[in-house]
Fold this protein.
Amino acid sequence: MSDLAIERYREVLKRRPDEPISANNLAYSLATRRNAPKEALPFAQRAVAAAPQNPGFLDTLAWIEHLLGDHGHASDHIAAAVRGAPQNPGIRLHAAVVYLGADKKDAAQVELQEALKINPELGKSEVDKDLRARLGIEPR
């Protein structure tokens, strides 16, 4: 996501402050591309407030809360995201990381295994390798 895209999301939100897709995308971009989760949090909260059952929005909010060290809220939100989109491997992988951050190793293992069942290609990622090492699981 480029700086130009971030600025365009900001422009959309100036004209339509309740537009949840732009709020969600801006939040995720700020948190992951600019390493600014604190700035991103209100945008993610705005997206979830507009569409509280949207798994993608819940995933973004959970990820940002995780980055901020708010593991309790992150765990709650990622659980709701997984319930809403159980076949989404990206959400399941985020769930594994969030649960590991919350010291819920068993839940993290389950989520990692589910993510890999859905998309075995994730097993080649650095995130997978890191998770396996932190969970004490042998590499594939």
